[in-house]
Amino acid sequence: MSIALRMRNAKPLLHALRGHLSFHRTISSATKFLETFTEEFEIGNRLVTLETGKIARFANGAVVLSMEDTKVLSTVTSSKADTARADFLPLTVDYQEKQFAQGVIPTTYMRREGAPKERELLCARIIDRPIRPLFPHGFYHEVQVMASVLSSDGKQDPDVLAANATSAALMLSDIPWGGPIGMIRIGRICGQFVVNPTMDELSLSDLNLIYACTKDKTLMIDVQAREISEKDLQAGLRLAHPEAVKYIEPQIRFAAKAGKSKKEYKLSMLSDKTLEKVSNLAEAPIIDVFTDPSYGKFERGEALENITQDVKKVLEEEDDEESLKALSKTVDTVRKKVVRKRIISEGSRVDGRQLDEVRPLYCEAGYVPMLHGSALFSRGETQVLCTVTLGAPTDAQRLDSLVGPPLKRFMLHYSFPPFCINEVGKRGGLNRREVGHGTLAEKALLAVLPPEDVFPYTVRVNSEVMASDGSTSMATVCGGSMALMDAGIPVREHVAGVSVGLVSELDPCTGEIVDYRILTDILGLEDHLGDIDFKIAGTRNGVTAIQLDMKPAGIPLDIICECLEPAHKARLQIIDHMEQEIKAPRTKDGISSPRLVTLKYNNDALRRLIGPMGSLKRKIELETGARMSVGDGTLTIVAKNQSVMDKILDKIDFIVGREIEVGGVYKGVVTTIKEYGAFVEFNGGQQGLLHISELSHEPVSRISDVVSIGQQITLMCIGQDVHGNIKLSLKATLRGRGGSDNNGIAVGSAASAKETANIWAPVSNASNTTQEQNSASELCIEKNEVAETKPSASQTPVILIRSAEECDEEEKSLSSNHNQTSNGPLIDDGVQLDHKSKSLSKSKPRKSQDTIDSPSHSGPLPYKSAKKPKLSTQKESKSDTQREERNEKEGKDNSTTKDLILGKEVTAKVYQIRAHGLVLDLGGGVRGMYRFEENSKKNFNIGEEMQVVCSSFSSKGIPVMSAVDDN
Predict the structure, then answer these.
(1) pLDDT at residue 267 is higher than 50
(2) What share of the chain is helix, strand, coil (3-state, %, to 5)?
(3) Phi, psi for residue 187 in degrees, rounded to 5
(4) Quick check: helix, strand or coil at residue 250?
(5) Is the dihedral of CA 778, 779, 780, 781 positive or negative?
(6) CA 502, CA 344: separation in Å to the nearest integer?
(7) Cβ of 962: how many Cβ atoms within 10 Å?
(8) Is the pLDDT of residue 353 over 60?
(9) What is the pTM of this model?
(10) Among 252, 264, 520, 661, which residue's CB has the most CB atoms within a 10 Å radius?
């Protein structure tokens, strides 16, 4: 079939398809898919927008809340089953901050977000705590809230926005809920309260108050402050309530426009018949248990469990299945009724205390002496062990949050192991309760920590709950405060915390509170059976942290404010007891005390210390156990004790070195010994000459009697010659003949890096210590500064040596004078060193002594010296360069002599003694090398003869000799 015929036959089909497509196009243009609803209002001079219907339309309730360029989406869903599967409210709140919200790709290996971070768990708790009490009693259907940040401009913290968006989403859904709620953040800058402060304003604020409420009752309070007084805190709370209420009316209007009708759910309520039957059986024995104050936590729990089992047996005999299903909850209800009635009517508590009485206290600082800091705190049967660990600035935690600081240098980690309540459990990952309790204690202690410029350490406090019977987070505050002082951290004063409870009686008709009692330092049982858990921490001067959780659907603000006064009295009582154990930061000078030092180096020196890709830095940290933090021209070192600090400073001095100065004291290693002195490597690979006259105050006939190859010695730089060659002295660091101390450092000279390592000081002299730590560079002479060095009367005239090669030539020319004593003056070309010598930071190092290269550098010879950093831009004289080239040429020509072949035995003389072998004179101007072998003789004298055999030649033709076996 032709192509034209095919096209003609296909035309009817194309026409029909066109008509079909145009029909659907008409239908789709007439259908409206999206119907959005919005509500706008103003909070704290900022416009807030609620929107629904555009995204997440399948969710039971979905709201996007916007404030400027920050948008948060909150969705709510519930299970579709008619009956509940649990006897509690299975409410799950998830909050997530994905990096796309700020235009960033995650830095993780998979380039995607992982497990929830601590901040996300904390924000989820901020949402959960105010909405949970408003679900109807007996509503046990599964509910899930998911809040996600869509965009963040970094100005507003999205946590408060997410809570208000969640309230609006619950109002739109068909889930029964007693909202709406309003949540607001209040700050205080220069004594003035600020509504909805930005992140920049919060950094200047001494108050970070999050307040949630219904129209007339408080639901949740979360506070971080810098010792704000109770009076000022009450003023902030009374300002926050009307501001938070401004969120409520817009949500009601929004739900009227776009909300669903509430669904009828079957509530799991206890029947009056079951409650009455169990009460008749269990109330009397429960009263007997609670009126006996001799019961402890577990004894009381065991007695109550026995009562439950007795009631169960009676119900089983009566075959009452309905009562058996709800037995546990019914007994708990009876127990709650008994305890609350005794507190309201008699003012009598479970353990026999008065309403405002604090349990017996026990404090012990330094419980684990080997740690940086530790403390054991007990209040009643609650016991917490807190420890402090200090680290380098680089140990700070990196935070990938949308808002807030990128680093956290103070961390408090709270652990609640199963054994603390005598249970069997499994340790998992991050626990929301543990994260919340630890963060509360962290905020409480953060207010008294010294600023970073005064105390640059990274601090980790670890709290292990040893026994729990209520308020372990407040016990963590007390134990953590003592542990910080035990570690010597200059905190201003102690911080203590206490938990306050409330038991109220309601009017059965109106539901309003008609009577109530405030309980100080509540037990775990009183927390469970009471209305609120009001945790308040602070110093003598004011409050530093607050967390309020409650079980009923709100408490009047007046009652909440009334709880502050008994908490203040209890806090002062606890601080008095803590100060009896430890009152001020201790001066840590033991072997386990951590050390910190800050040194100044140029960036080239720091690059040498770090190594390629940080390999050398990691190697040093692994070998020593210390931590190094490198900044721009600054090196901060943190070691767990002084021995570790000494070890790492020795390594750093050897690799990087310091500014060489006249009068400076250095550690070095003897590398070569000659008749006139020893060459020493020091200060990061520098070479210096220790002349025989500078070995001791007494005459020295042989250098090997005082020093040996490979020996580490402490020396003083006494000057340099016109060529920049460094002269060292051992006797300047030793005591003189008359017992006087001659090792004093010249004025303005550089102290060793190790000498700048200072532990932190107590509060009285913390500023002086900080100045010493942060100004190590001041210990060095500036480049243009002149240091005066006056020779001692006991010192011999200065000895000036240009280089090792010149020393060899002088030896040849003065071979008749080899037995000259150390006091004989040798003046190099008559040049004298000026007593007023400049700092050697710009001088040029002496060339290292000649070396012999071995094939592939695999053996102990030659001595390999590191590349020396230049001390001066002064060029070498032409004669020096020509002399070196001539010596090198002569050595190469002599090493290729044809008279010496493999296996030839010769009698050689020891020409030089090196660290790993000898340089031998084979006769006729030929030099050879001899490596020290394991278990072989290593004590030789210059000029000593030995029988050797030629075993090989190096890559440069230098003969490699071996000792002749006598056998």
Answers:
(1) yes
(2) 35, 25, 40
(3) -120, 170
(4) helix
(5) positive
(6) 10
(7) 14
(8) yes
(9) 0.70
(10) 661
